[in-house]
Amino acid sequence: MMNIYQHFREDEQSFIDQVIDWILQVENQYAPYLTNFLNPRQLFIVESIIGQYDTIYHQSFGGYEGAEQQRILIYPPYYEPTSNDFEITLFEINYPTKFAELSHGQIMGTVLGIGISRGNLGDILTDGERWQFFADEGMKDFILMNVNHVGRVNVHLEENSIENLVQKMDKWESEEIVVSSLRIDVILARALNVSRNRAKTLIKDQKVKLNWVEVERPDIDVEEYDILSIRGFGRVKIGTQQGITRKDNLVLKIEVIDRNT
Questions:
Q1: Residue range of the domain that includes 238
Q2: β-strand pairing of 70-75 with 227-230
Q3: Last residue of one domain, picked from the residues 164, 197, 217
Q4: Going by C-beta distance under 8 Å and a sequence separation of 6 or more, which residues neighbour residue 208?
Q5: Higher pLDDT residue, 71 or 3?
Q6: Dihedral sign, CA of 196, 198, 200, 202?
Q7: How many domains does the chain have?
Q8: Taking the CB of the first residue and of the last residue of the chain, which one, N or C, has fewer CB atoms within 10 A?
Q9: Does any domain span residue 1?
């Protein structure tokens, strides 16, 4: 276990320590532990570490099949999880659809702006008109009490059931790109079809986030399951390396959502 750090980025070490603490808690107390909502990269890290333990099990769920942000339940062998163990609430945002428009970024900014953490907020979904989001069930009353507008639009939140989940408008589109390295500016340039200098400018202008954390340098290497959010362009999900070309370039699988974030 001491060598686990070498498989991940240096800035992920504190999260790895946290994951190990969760596992030890389950081992010592012989009781399940529920995480906050985790992004795909964090999910990958947790699952990689838990896989090294023979007597620790886990399940992940984000409110619906294919959720991007998910909570992980870590539990001992005797425990049999149910969907209620994940403590997730679905909110419907009621607003004057004929006279106003909402956006993913506005909704996230509003919910986080009332003082809850990113880990308390799950996926934000839309079918082009209706908007919904998932959140930690323990924050339900606080969210209902404090969210009454998104941007300048007056809204009314209500709890909804999974049976009324909207059909997502956003769809990830898979493609393969050829890159010289895994540097974030190289990936951005190829994925967005812009110049390398343009990619560096996007980073310098604070328009790029890596797993929802603002990127400050263009020389950071991306890893599998990372998600890049680029204001004005959309999002890019990093997939697996598919091979190497004759010129020693990398063939990388990515997924893209082309929309403002």
A1: 173-258
A2: unpaired
A3: 164
A4: 184, 188, 202, 214, 215, 228, 229, 230, 231
A5: 71
A6: negative
A7: 3
A8: N
A9: no
